[in-house]
Specification:
homodimer, 12 strands
Chain lengths: 314, 314
């Protein structure tokens, strides 16, 4: 019988139990134990940890794990909390997550393109105020970040006829989609995009990347969608740009603190759409299948899946 | 020199002048005159009328027109106002209109599917309340009407992964999209659709078609999108169904009276999204090109484009 796998989360017990069952269905040959139910001896035996936003002190009580599989795609908090000496981390790379995130990018791009926030304000005032229609070929959508999520989003936007530009730190080729990179490319995309979509991981480099200076380089009247991580944008600078009318709207799904505190000025801001981190929900079933395949491959071949580059942060 | 074409609209003079210029650019060989600028003699000479919501008394002052080209796709008001003895009517059939309408159907389907109205209400209360995500394959979108617009919308919905069903009065085959027809098919689609989209023309048959009885046959919690004509839905019955919580939301772009009067209960209804008839705006340039091609064909061959079936109303 293989040594146990530890499931370490900060979920409430009922939610964790649902995940544990789904993982057990996908990996019937393994013994998956919830960290909170494990004896001290079982914690010493555990060979692997499957984690979702775990308490780092709990992970530290599993000294013999070979590697850690995250149930989420975003691991910047995990990397920061576990520190450089932790076991290698494998993040979830789920094509279903890329599909649902690309769908969200298209859905909220349409939200802005088809003027839904403006029509909501008109409705509030009982005002019949049709706005001019713009063909999507005349609307430039700029994507920041061209990982799995950015690539999938670029495809959907391009397929919907938007003038799509993608930006990444180092040069990337993306079929027939225009891509730019580096500092020069960043300035270009800021100046060109009518709608700017954040899909970058949070790293030392991207933290605070969209600050007052960068926001002032954006096309006047542009809108912004943040589906990545809250701290990529400097909140106070964003609010100043919206208040000044330099930017028209922000759709924010991610925040420095989640749930967003009731005191946040975002809630009541007329040019902000607040979403409760729902753009890219993890699909429990596809996620469990991917985790199962990775663990099975390791059992059979000793080969670990691609692990997170701790220095890059993703 | 050919006899003049009369442009008859209820647009303000400046808007009509823009249309007249666009039509003149597309038809430089014709003499297009605004009805309001025409002498009595010119009105007798006019061979064709190009109309947009014209005053029927004005059209009656053009006794020698061979046919009438509408600049809009919806002609039910024109047919009703001109009566059965008017010249044959040609409506605008513009692939660009089908594209932009299909885009609107997808955009507001996402609006409902991705819970945008619910998140707006949560934001108003500063409430962090994520909702479960449903895969589009588990969301049934029912399309009422499978003309050019319905067909284009069905393709976009199917392409986005929604479980798409189309309904038409008489049976139609639509590639790999499930279609139903007639009374039995109507009951089926009402019971199956999570989101019901109206794209039917307004006719004697469709007027008041979605009344209390029909709305009560809809799937509990379903939502409705009306991008067709206001009188297809009985307003008071719709409000009763929304108030009772039987239907979750209505996106209304069309109304019995437009602009929607300030006294309408729709404006302030929490489960209604009011749009100012913007789902399918006519593109002036593609419309002018289509009108030009139809008129040229008639000049050269004497062949009139397909005209409106006055009895069917479209």
């Amino acid at each position: 019988m293989p040594k146990p796998l530890a499931l370490v989360t900060r979920m409430d017990a009922a939610t964790e139990a649902v995940w544990k069952d789904t993982l057990a269905d996908a990996l019937p040959e393994e013994t998956i134990l919830s960290f909170r139910d494990m004896s001290a001896e079982q914690r010493l035996q555990a060979e692997l940890a499957i984690v979702a936003n775990p308490d780092p002190a709990h992970v530290a009580e599993l000294p013999n794990i070979n590697w850690i599989h995250s149930l989420w795609a975003g691991v910047e908090r995990l990397v920061a909390e576990l520190g450089p000496d932790a076991a290698p981390i494998v993040r979830l790379v789920d094509p279903e997550l890329a599909r649902v995130m690309a769908e969200a990018v298209l859905a909220w791009t349409y939200y802005l393109h088809r003027d839904m926030p403006a029509y909501r304000l008109s409705q509030k005032k009982a005002e019949w105020a049709p706005r001019d229609y713009r063909h999507p070929r005349d609307v430039t959508v700029g994507l920041l970040g061209l990982g799995e999520l950015g690539k999938a989003a670029a495809d959907r936007l391009k397929g919907a006829g938007f003038n799509t530009i993608g930006w990444s730190r180092s040069p990337k080729v993306l079929g027939d989609i225009e891509t730019v990179s580096g500092e020069g490319g960043f300035e270009h995309i800021l100046g060109a995009a009518d709608i700017l979509v954040c899909l970058m991981p949070l790293t030392a480099e991207t933290r605070g990347m969209l600050d007052a200076r960068r926001l002032s380089q954006m096309k006047p009247g542009a809108a912004i969608i943040n589906f990545a991580r809250g701290p990529i944008i400097v909140d106070t600078d964003l609010i100043a740009a919206l208040d000044a009318g330099r930017l028209s709207h922000a759709v924010l799904d991610v925040f420095a603190q989640e749930p967003l505190p009731a005191t946040s000025p975002f809630w009541a801001h007329p040019s902000v759409t607040v979403l409760p981190h729902i753009s890219g929900p993890t699909d429990r079933f596809t996620a469990a299948g991917i985790v199962a395949a990775n663990i099975r491959q390791w059992r059979q071949t000793g080969k670990m899946p691609k692990t997170v580059d701790i220095k890059a942060g993703y």
